[in-house]
Design a protein that fits this description.
Arc Repressor Mutant, subunit A, three-stranded antiparallel beta sheet, alpha+beta
């Protein structure tokens, strides 16, 4: 993943808050993962709408840490999520046509 990527949680992953940790369970392979507070926050922000750069920027506002250190941590955590098949890269939405189905332009279908 790069700074423009938009990480998105995969549907086959179950997330559950435990006493101090946050647990992820991948139903496809049976593996589970335990996240600390920051890992949990990164997971929550992987909704497919934010770029990696936006995730880092948001976390910098929440935690007292340099952006360089945080960028390394976020990219490392996203690599672990990706290796565990917990996230994928969101694809851009298809452009929506303003024309109704079957519409014509200048008397000819387009």
């Amino acid at each position: 993943m790069n700074l423009q990527s938009r990480p998105q949680r995969r549907e086959q992953v179950i997330a559950q808050k435990a006493s101090k940790d946050f647990l992820l369970f991948n139903m496809d392979d049976g593996n589970y993962y335990s996240l600390n507070e920051v890992g949990c926050r990164i997971w929550q922000l992987c909704d497919g709408t934010r770029s990696v750069a936006e995730i880092i920027e948001g976390l910098c506002a929440e935690y007292d840490v340099s952006s360089d250190v945080l960028a390394q941590d976020v990219l490392g955590m996203l690599a672990e999520f990706s290796n565990g098949k917990l996230i994928s890269e969101a694809t851009p939405a298809e452009p929506i046509s303003d024309s109704p189905v079957g519409a014509e332009r200048n008397g000819a279908p387009f």
